[in-house]
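#struct-help
A.M.: can someone run this one for me? Single chain, 275 residues.
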Amino acid sequence: MAFNFNERLDNADGTLIVDALNLAFRWKHQGRTDFREDYAATVASLANSYNCARVIITADWGSSSYRKEILPDYKQNRKDKYAEQTEEEKQAFIDFFDEYEATLEILSERYPVLRFQGVEADDIAAHLVKRKNQYAFQNIWLISSDRDWDLLIQQNVSRFSYVTRKEITIDNWNEHYNVAPEEYISFKCLTGDKGDNVPGIAGIGPKRAEQLIKEYGDAMTIYDNVPLDGKYKYIQELNENAETLLTNYELMDLITYCEDAIGVDNLSEIEEKLK
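D.P.: on it. Structure tokens below:
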């Protein structure tokens, strides 16, 4: 599939921020190892669709060193799953990542690719959103199927998922969640994140998390009110493990802790690349 890096959009005021590895898995799930040109064409098409004159590629480079210090087992489940794969499955991953690296090389010819050892794309994207006025970003479109990126949604910052084919914006937020955007981090602190091996409070799923937030407020307010009254097992678990809420804030509150996770030297490099 042909793509044109030099095509520019008249009067475009948007910025497209791509979760690079996340998008690449679109082709991994199809068993593809020849997707570099299709990937580049998809990025160009998305930029056109969302009226984005600027495209920024954010890429993971290993697990977050910042989070591993807080929670040594962070994402350990993924390594365990890989270790259990057959040699054929492992080779398929190697082939996929070889193509992914080639794709990043092609993209770097046209777009800034932000990637740093021990830093995750989530934190780089969070920094770009946090400092959007500094970088003169007006309308931002996040391209990721990772719901963690919904922590970044605010006015003029939206997400498109290639998996669900849905757009999540500040205006349609209530169609996707039963908590307010500012309460979403509290929801995640209570429930944890199985995909990243981040434990929540035992017995607290989405419904109970929503109920606790409605009754007490955000997770910090819940923490301040511990011990909570109640004989239910999940309340007892919360009372006994309230420190988990504080740990999970540090692990998952992207906007607050993204720059700690990126590091001073890498932040300087981002600013230099985006001049």
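A.M.: thanks! Strands lie at 14-19, 52-59, 113-115, 139-143, 157-161, 166-168, 192-193, 198-199.
D.P.: also worth noting: The longest strand covers residues 52-59.
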